[in-house]
């Protein structure tokens, strides 16, 4: 459940239709200078998983070959310059209507893999160029997080990630 803290005046400024509750420190001190608004309470239609991710590409044919043949994503269908792939239940839409594309700085799409080293070897055999070697990113209490990064033909940053247990 996600909660967003917002500052407000004592109980007079409430968001209509969204229940609020006092924060623990407000109960302890008696001051009401902040409330927590819970996004899933009072909403008749809560959000679910992502259904589709749109990615602009300069050349739909080139990107269709990269995502379909090099990465091996199952193609769902193509409609003009729009190409749709299945990413384990989330649809990836490549929009080839743009003449020029700038990759969004700081944006990255991470693909989960069971074992990162064999996945890297297979993609390298399909001419995917990696920017680094698979490396340990973080040790968690129950697993290690491994990643490696590469780019698509338009410069969009992509990654493979393994949660190694």
Automatic annotation (TrEMBL):
Residues 49-163 form the VOC domain. The keyword S-adenosyl-L-methionine does not apply. Pfam families: Glyoxalase. The keyword Metal-binding applies. Keywords: Metal-binding. InterPro entries: Glyas_Bleomycin-R_OHBP_Dase (IPR029068), Glyas_Fos-R_dOase_dom (IPR004360), Glyoxalase_1_CS (IPR018146), VOC_core (IPR037523). PROSITE patterns: GLYOXALASE_I_1 (PS00934), VOC (PS51819). This is VOC family protein. It comes from Rhodanobacter ginsengisoli.
């Amino acid at each position: 459940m996600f909660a967003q803290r917002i500052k407000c005046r004592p109980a007079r400024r409430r968001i209509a239709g969204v229940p609020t509750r006092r924060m623990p420190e407000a109960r302890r001190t008696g001051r009401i200078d902040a409330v927590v608004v819970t996004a899933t309470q009072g909403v008749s239609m809560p959000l679910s998983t992502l259904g589709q991710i749109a990615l602009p590409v300069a050349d739909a044919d080139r990107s269709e070959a990269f995502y379909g043949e090099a990465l091996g994503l199952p193609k769902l269908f193509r409609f003009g310059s729009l190409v749709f792939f299945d990413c384990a239940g989330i649809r990836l839409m490549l929009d080839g209507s743009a003449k020029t594309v700038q990759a969004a700085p700081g944006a990255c799409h991470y693909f989960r893999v069971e074992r990162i080293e064999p996945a890297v070897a297979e993609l390298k055999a399909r001419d995917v160029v990696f920017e680094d070697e698979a490396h340990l990113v973080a040790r968690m209490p129950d697993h290690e997080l491994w990643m490696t990064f590469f780019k698509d033909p338009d410069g969009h940053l992509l990654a493979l990630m393994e949660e190694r247990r």
